[in-house]
């Protein structure tokens, strides 16, 4: 745990205290969770540890939601998206530690790499040593921003002015106060905030836009300052927060299967291919929903009604909009969810017969089958391509992606994906391939040997200015119905960490209500017997 910086855990709102273990006579609830993304899995783990009975229902054939991956008929691992773990993923690391999979994370060099057209690679380098002494936050960050060759001296100066007058500075001495200031910047775009603090458009173009696209799939003029600054305050105050890790292989095998095993070992059950079609509920005299009474689920032509004491919708935004009964929208709490929208994103994998990012050594570039790959082994950003971030998975996550006799597996995240959504997979791959070669001209004579495209019409919720108030709490106005999901109210951005945190918040809200929920469950059972 030390190695992933849990010693550095931040504010309570970002890392809540777990409730004490249940006493011997603590009530045991039957909980039905819809959705097996990280939010649903995290909720399940917490509730199982509190002694409750948990069933997870997932409409897809596999678990994991947006983190999922699956193998095609030829054994290629297809991912929903490129997933990178920042050093400040305290809730996710805690979950991974429970499931014994922290060692599946590979730590990359502590630098953020920008790949410009023509093979021009420049770093935002957080590695700061004086002699053998590692210098940490905030000095490593200050040095990284002062020395990065990605920006001109004037832009670096303007950058420092903007960041030096941001809530980040308050966070250094007063983390709660800094977070409050960050939350208050939800109404303004990062671009407007940054420029009003002296930041330059050139910095946005060359550095901040690729980062904003990577974080929220939006550019700086469309993303809220809250979203960006909530990450940067971590980067500034926690030495390892900006360090990047990637899974050693596919998310299905290296992350999700071990979490599923942990859930099953604790008595939890996961039912894939069971999609929830309807939430059934009781109403009061005025027609207001009081409690959920069951879920109607289908699997192909089969149907079942699931009854539980507590129901959790651990969904993405489109899933939540489909499931929430229309009548519930009379309550602003639920209607607000319909104001949130998802951002389209496309993940493209391109396999080559050599090493795309190995630009120095012609022999290594062609050397396949040596049991290792060559080139840039990190997350890569670019301001000169339609994919803002990308990585060679054969290098970063070699366990499942390195293949003997083959070269790079470039995984590129197209954002904004809107202009590409209507194109064919072949067209998309051809355009991404052209752009890869523009960034790495030394790869011009390599052949693309395989490709895959995954389009997600609505992925992350659009963290645009002013959207935060529409995010729902985990506890809802309907008695035994709770929400989880990265889009629900939590202080981190829409991410794996945000999803895991939302699951913890959801489970702890249920635990806080356990006595009332148990009484209601007992009353419902008694009424059923009487009937
Ligand atoms: C391309 C891409 C790249 C990303 N990169 C990163 C990254 O580098 N780092 C990072 O931290 N985050 C990243 N993210 C974000 C991260 O994946 C998400 O924030 C997180 O996984 C969301 O988890 P969730 O559980 O809230 O929702 P989801 O993962 O969307 O899970 C919701 C689940 O509910 C299921 N469901 C929906 N409706 C029903 C129904 N009616 N019945 C049953 N099941 C249903 C869905 O099938 C899905 O499995 C990325 C996302 C994408 C798309």
List keywords for this structure.
5-stranded parallel beta sheet; 7-stranded mixed beta sheet; 531 residues; alpha+beta; globular; binds flavin-adenine dinucleotide
Compact description:
The chain is α+β, with helices and mostly antiparallel strands and 531 residues long.
Ligands bound here?
A: flavin-adenine dinucleotide
Tally of individual helices: 18
| pLDDT < 50 runs, ≥5 residues | none
Structural class, from secondary structure content? alpha+beta
Helix content: 25-40%
> What's the end-to-end separation, in Å?
53 Å
Strand order, largest beta sheet: 8-7-18-19-20-17-21
- What composes the largest sheet? 7 strands, mixed
Mean pLDDT, all residues: 95
Number of strands: 22
